[in-house]
Amino acid sequence: MSDLTQHTNSHDSGHAHEVEPARLGHSPVADIPHRPRATDTDPRMARRAERQVAAMFVLSMVFVVLFVVAYIAIDKTTSVYIPVLGDVGYSQVALGFTLGAAVFLIGAGAIQWAKKLMPDVEVVQERHDMASPKDDSTLAAANYERGKEESGFARYTIIRRTLLAALALFPIPLIIMLKDLWVPGPLQQGKSPAQILSTTLWRKGTRIVSDGTYQPVKATDLPVGGLVSAVPADLREVEEVDGNLNARGKAAIILVRMQPDQIRSQQGEGWDYQGILAYSKICTHVGCPIALYEQRTHHLLCPCHQSTFDLADAGNVVFGPAARSMPQLPIGVDEEGYLVAMSDFQVPIGPSFWERA
Amino acid sequence: MTTTSPVEKIGGGAATYVDQRLGSNKFLARNLGKVFPDHWSFMLGEIALYSFVVVLITGVFLTLFYKPSSLDVIYDGSYVPLKGIKMTEAYASSLNLSFDIRGGLLLRQMHHWAALIFVGAIAVHMFRVFFTGAFRKPREFNWIIGVALTTMALGAGFSGYSLPDDLLSGTGLQIARGIMQSIPVVGTWMAFLLFGGEFPGTDFISRLYAVHILLIPGLILALVTVHLMMVWTQKHTQFPGPGRTNDNVVGYPLMPVYMAKAGGFFFIVFGVIALIGGLVTINPIWLFGPFTPDQVSAGSQPDWYIGWLDGALRMMPNIESHLFGFTISWNVLIPAAIIPGILFTALALYPFLEAWATGDKREHNLLERPRNAPTRTAIGVMSIVFYMLLWIGGANDILAITFGLSINSIIWALRILIFVLPPLSFVITRRMCLGLQRRDREKLLHGYESGRILRLPHGEFIEVHQPLNTKEMAVITSKVDVPVLPVPAKTDADGVANKFYLVDRLRHSLSSFFYGTNIPLPSAAEIEAGQHHATHDAIEEAPLHAYEDRDELFNAHGGVLHHPGMPMTNMEQVEQGPAGTSH
Predict the structure, then answer these.
(1) pLDDT digit string (tens) for B34-60?
(2) Can you tell me the distance from the alpha carbon of B398 to that of B146, in angstroms, rounded to the nearest whole number?
(3) Which pTM does this prediction carry?
(4) ipTM above 0.90, yes or no
(5) Could you give the domains of chain A?
(6) Could you tell me which residues are beta bridge partners of residue B328?
(7) Do A305 and B256 touch (CB under 8 A)?
């Protein structure tokens, strides 16, 4: 270590000096009155602080042992009731507490050490201007000029320009290769994103089945004021083939039933069936699924950003940030009396996008 | 006097070995004694740094167990309510981490808590830097890096929030997709490329994973390194105080005090995060169920640092334009892209804007008290109020339920308040700062009001004024106003028109707005006289008849009379009084 202290501190030379090695380059702040701590004046207090610090380090080790014990001994599935926290995993709490205590005590010990036993006299160091000395700047400029001259960067105009052009072009391959982040599926060949977003699984005659049970829905299954989340009958097979939830994300609908005379308007003539209306479930704002339906007002509320749509009035926005009405799906019944779609949605469902008219 | 232990001998040998190859002792010689100023608010940045380290450590563990895959599996872990349910591997592995891996939930919760604390500490650290003017020359670059780190931290948080693929995290992604789609011209394509087609697809989780565990942490690590190197090179700023000037740094040397304190504090932060992670549940993903694009739970809330963006989305009126067969969704674009874009750009450029407006080109190493830069402080408070209103907007449904209010009226109130409260808070803050400056001036001229009321022999009550102590004196007199830029002339001496007249005039107005209204400090002589007076009046044991003249009594600045009932003489009190009062 003597190596270190022999170096004169060039950085801060010019002041300081009759100070112990640890204070090289510093002088104490003269006009801050320093009040000695108990540990500075009383050796017994100093020894006590020493014992405190060591005790914390020892306790930390104890907690590490306890952590290991808890890891091995406590069954991971048992839970324990702790006031305020409620029912919590026993293992989780024990591991967290012992780990936390072990780590915390190292920190607490170190800080106690610093506060009680290390010097608490503030010292001063000079600052220096950030700007380089003039000589350095001159030398840097001279070196730059020399480089410019020797390379001929200024003279060889054509080299300079072609180099800059080449540098500008070389990232292009890296960007182009991002194109295949999306590889269109077999049914998406030749379609633009906008076209894909504009169609769903619904076709004329697609049976409406309730979500979860996949049972077809009859008009009589739905009482006035009722609401059912529904999907197309072929969704399950499509999901099997696709292996994703994309089709569901577009085709999900809700069915609501109201008294036919309560329906003030719809998006198309006769799109309801005996007061049963089908609307997309995907909010036209930023695409959250909507399911908060207030029977009395026929309002549908998005839980994400509180856009509110009036299903008795063509799904129009009555409040909130959504700009477009909830798309309505025209429905009817097939020969067996089950509810079916009469066509796909007439407008893209979900949030707006640039290419959309 | 000190002995060298065998370990130290080995250490010394190693130091020499390394030094002969890297010249490292030069660095050690310069830096082992490097002084760091002390203040509690300097720990805020440390908390951010240490919680980031905790995030890294716990994150590495999580990567060993988490599977970033959208493949479907049937859950068969020990969490009974979800047994037999189809879900992605990502969600299943997150559940396994929470229930089947000992300490897994602890690590997950520590990771989440540390991330929340990371972003929070960054925000408060940024407030400290802003309100004390620590971003001024020569530290503008570090401010920009700090702003970049803030955005990275938000990105890191959001990308992590979206990985478990539970219902809540998937809903966040669904919203992100909707926001992406609102971007004119390229938005739809962007969403398709990032998600590998339609939402939710099967590619995004693994892509997001790469971003979350490699790209963003790599950038944060690089930027944090530069951030710290700059602090090291430029030396930390310090608060004004006795012996502290713009040209020195007063504090404790790196070795040993600062090292022990900062190192110890790392363990404290780590330990506290472990305790919170062990005891306080965060993001109980098992309650939300697997993600599906057609379900959502009421009261869906993002993590706190995304709340303001969500609030902006909720508050925006539903404006959409249709031009030439294209759609621009202002209702999404403005709150989710344009407002954050403007805010973060303004934030990054602020040091340059302020320096341009005030014409201040000096180096600042001594922190400025917020009251001494009223306009800056007011801008800061205004921004915080603006942010808080957006944040409240993000919780409108929770507020509506908790307080039985209508969501519509909350939103309408916020839509109006967002234009009213920030300017109002600007004006009030600026006034308050100027008021505090006046009070500082008073203190310099008359000492401070001690709160001791004395009754004079002839019955009048007065309050004793005491001279300021050294510390307070140093703090108050640290105020340095930037001179107001001159009023520009329309033409110069030769009658040539000043091409930049309008710009110069704007700068003049801005600079007088910034520092022109500041209350000047009294001159040194006035301060001397004022403090002297306060001291002297306190000491004077004036005979009663001297105070029978009312005018003189009023001029006495709260002078104190000695009377037999007092426990000690004023002279004794002053001599015993707070350290450093004597001149």
Answers:
(1) 999 999 999 999 999 999 999 999 999
(2) 32
(3) 0.89
(4) no
(5) 2-124 (no CATH), 140-170 (no CATH), 199-341 (2.102.10.10)
(6) B321
(7) no
